[in-house]
């Protein structure tokens, strides 16, 4: 037993929790080991994104210990549920629980300045390969060629290992005045920047169900997104915005459609806000989670 597991064991023996809720499959595996050696608790694990991709890339036995020890596995999307079943989790072991969004915090601003000529696009995420911000940058280059009379600016919020590579790409494509790598921001700063933007862009080539799209929708933003994972469950073409395959050409076409349908932005934003209110309200999700803890679901 390593030092981390030793301290976890000590904590559990001292506090005697009824339920341990692990987020991400790797943490669930650690908790499953502790349960397997006799520590008495109910084990619940929520899978998100990278843990699903990890399970896909490994052999089918990767999560066997968790399959054996978990009382409930929480799935945040249809995509996750299908993959969890592929990993070997039992149908009645998996419960569906949407990601919750604080809709009182993430909400449209009544102070947004709609008189500005520049179209403000925003993206949020870790600067990693699977987020594919290079596709977003190259798509903006194409859009600027198409809409030569329109001022367009993309702000990318986030930090990560691809910062230097993406910055060099921006410089090489002469996009310094059109794209800003804004770095890491607090939740309040992200919310404020979403509220000041015209629409949200996600270019990922691998996702499960990105919470950041839900936060953008809660702020009333139309969405342009790649169509990976369960994104098509939360972004409907022509209702919440537009989706596309994660390629430069397809994302460029989706961006073009969004810019040309400016008269629809308000409706897209209202539809997205209503979807989040109806399906991802944090208070409702929390109440359901408490029922799961109690064994009422």
The N- to C-terminal Cα distance equals: 34 Å
**Helix residue percentage:** 40-55%
Number of strands: 10
Number of helices: 13
Elements, N to C (H/E): HEHEHHEHEEHEHEHEHEHEHHH
Strand content: 15-25%
Return residue spans where pLDDT drops below 50 for at least 5 consecutive residues.
none
CATH architecture of the largest domain: 3-Layer(aba) Sandwich
Oligomer: single chain
The CATH superfamily of the largest domain is known as Glycogen Phosphorylase B
Q: Kindly give the count of domains.
A: 2
Strand order of the largest sheet: 7-6-5-8-9-10
Please give the largest β-sheet: 6 strands, parallel
From the spread of the alpha carbons, the general shape counts as elongated
- CATH class term of the largest domain: Alpha Beta
Describe what is shown at a glance:
The protein is α/β, with parallel strands linked by helices. It has helices spanning 3-15, 25-36, 50-57, 64-69, 78-87, 133-146, 163-172, 187-195, 211-218, 231-234, 248-260, 265-279, 282-294, and strands at residues 19-23, 42-46, 72-75, 94-96, 119-124, 152-157, 179-183, 199-202, 223-226, 241-244.
Task: Report on the architecture of this protein.
This protein is α/β, with parallel strands linked by helices. The protein folds into two domains: 3-100 and 281-294, Rossmann fold, CATH 3.40.50; 119-279, Rossmann fold, CATH 3.40.50.2000. 45% of the residues lie in helices and 15% in strands. It contains 13 helices and ten strands. It has helices spanning 3-15, 25-36, 50-57, 64-69, 78-87, 133-146, 163-172, 187-195, 211-218, 231-234, 248-260, 265-279, 282-294; strands spanning 19-23, 42-46, 72-75, 94-96, 119-124, 152-157, 179-183, 199-202, 223-226, 241-244. The strands form two sheets. Strands 7-6-5-8-9-10 form a six-stranded parallel sheet, with helices on both faces. The protein has a four-stranded parallel sheet with strand order 1-2-3-4, with helices on one face. Helix 5 (78-87) links the parallel strand 3 (72-75) and strand 4 (94-96). The longest helix is centred in the C-terminal third of the chain and has 15 residues, at 265-279.
